[in-house]
Structure formats: C-alpha cells, structure tokens
Amino acid sequence: MKDLTNSSTARQNILNNAYAIEEIQKAVGVDGIVFDSQFRFLKTQIAAFFEVDERTIERYLEIYENELKVNGYEVLRGKRLKEFILACQKAGVSDIHVAHKTRNLGVFNFRAFLNLGMLLTESVKARTLRGIMLDIVIDTINKRTGGNTKYINQRDEDFILSYFKEESYRKEFTDAMRNYVAMGNAKYAIYTNKIYQSIFKEHATEYRQILKLSKNDNVRETMYSEVLDLISSYEFGLAKLIEERYNKLGRKLTSTELDNLFLAFEGLALWVPLIEKARRKMASRDLAFREVLHQRLEEYIGAVPAEDFERFLGEKSKELAERLEEARDVFKRLKERE
C-alpha cells in the first residue's frame, strides 16, 4: 500500500481526482460549516476529529502550509472573515470559538481536511482514513473504466486520430527500412526498439512486462496520444533521413551507417522538451491510473493534473468502440490520401 505520508505525488493524485473525492466525502460523512458552497472546518474541529492536540495541527500547518493552501486551506481576513462569521451565526454554530475581534482565521475545506489526514502520523483515525481513501481511489478508477485500465489511454478523445496517423507514419518508416537499409527482417524490431528506448527508456519486451500485456496485446494500443505522436515524429523523420542518405550514397545503408544516423538523429536538441513531456505523461499517468511503475522513468513522475482525471475518467470520455463509429468518416478520408 502507498505511504501517503511520504509521497506528495500520491497525495496530490488523490486530491486532483474529483470523482474519488466525491466518493470519499460520502464515505467519511463529516459535516462542516457551509461557506462558499463548501464545507469548511476550523482547526479546533480538525483536531477533535483526528484526536490530536491543536498544537499538532499548527505544526503541520507550518511545515506543509504551501501544499495545504494549494488544496483549499485558506486564511480568512477582512470582508471574507466577516462573511464567514455571519455564515456561522446563521447556521447556529456556537461552539467554534471565533471571537469578534479575530483579524484572521484559518479554515480547511474538505480537500484540505483530507490533505492533512494524509500527513498526520500521530493520529490513528488519520491512518484509518488513509487506507479508506486508497481503497476508494482504486474502486473509483475501476468502476469508471469498467475494470480495464490497460486501455484507459483509449478514453482520451485524441487517441483515435493519433493512433491512426501513427499507422501511416509507421508505413513510411518500414518502407524506408525495406528499400534503403541492407539488413534482414530483424531490422524492423531492432530499430523500433531503439525508438522506444530513446523516447521512454524501455524496449517493447520491457514495456510489455511492466504493463503485464499478453502476446496478443498490441503495444501501441496501450500508449497515450502524446507518446504515439512522438513515435510518429521519430518514424517519419528517420524515414526521410534514411531516404536522403540512400540517395546521396547511391546504395543501401549498412547497419553501422544506420546506427550512426540514428545516434545523430536522436541527439537533436529539438527532441529534448518533447521527450521530457512524453516521459512525464507516461510515467505519471501509468502510476496514477494503472498502478504501474516505470522504474527507468521514476524521476519524471509527478502528480496528474485534475484535467487529466476528467480527460480519462470523466463523462465525456468514451470507450474506443463508440469513438471508432464516430470517426469512421475521418478514417475513410485519411485512408484515401495514402
């Protein structure tokens, strides 16, 4: 089980998942003071819930203030403080110890409440809550994906076009390898693996093992659109360079010549930001959605933004079969251009 107390990325992945937060809120069932259409909790209420001293909460606020503020902790002042005190009075809340002369007041929303619960090591209730949260996150993702996260990448509306276009660029690459490189059929797998290793540091067999794919699974059908787009760029760009070198030499390239060409090609500075982006997307999403760790890409792992949870789990995300039907005309037009 993930140790949320030690991983800011794991904490943020939960807090950015609005669907999981909704289910956690139902399961926890705590009520706060309604303010700005959200439940708000005071330090005294938080301390009481987690059965710790208020000074413990203050210590965590000092250490993790920035993280907690990102996730909804707010210090109310001036007009907002007056409005909050008025909301407390209207709700008949009389035991929150807010003095009228108070000039600032820290309040937690539900996300910040959960955030603190992920951090507290002194509270038994916080430890129990962390286990509940992790179970709910897994259940939520499984329910919204029909229990099949292997192809969660296909719930992205950009996947279909990226996948189809990649097939065209793949053909450019394999045609160039066939026509202009003096090697046997092993060349296709060898240089495909070189492309994979250049982009995400894994060859096809490693990738299959990490995602636990069967021999019948198509590797590229599990890849995110951004990764497919970068593979397409590699394949198309390399195909054109191979063709140019063939025309210059007047003969097919040897394996050594192709190795040197590939080395220079992958070393181009233009790839750096694109590769870093693809690695971040792949490593971060696979850990959050598939619970898969790409060890070679561990340094690129970060929190998945809230918009990605909407992108892959939201109501607008659709199963591949549905989008294939909608994209039939697009496929037909692109196919006719080949």
Quantity of strands, as a count = 4
Instruction: Determine the N-to-C terminus distance.
Output: 49 Å
Strand content bin: 5-15%
Strand order of the largest sheet: 1-2-4-3
Write the element-wise H/E pattern from the N-terminal end onward: HHEEHHEHEHHHHHHHHHHH
Largest sheet: 4 strands, antiparallel
Report the radius of gyration as a whole number of Å: 26 Å
Helix content: 55-70%
Note the total helix count.
16
Low-confidence stretches: none
Keywords:
338 residues; mainly alpha; 2 domains; four-stranded antiparallel β-sheet; 64% helix
Task: Characterize the structure shown.
By secondary structure, the chain is mainly α. 64% of the residues lie in helices and 5% in strands. The chain has helices spanning 8-15, 18-28, 43-50, 54-70, 78-90, 110-119, 124-144, 159-180, 186-200, 204-211, 225-249, 255-266, 271-290, 306-313, 320-326, 328-337; strands at residues 33-35, 38-42, 74-77, 104-108. A 4-stranded antiparallel sheet has the order 1-2-4-3. Helix 2 crosses helix 7 and helix 3 crosses helix 4. The model has no long low-confidence stretch (mean pLDDT 91).
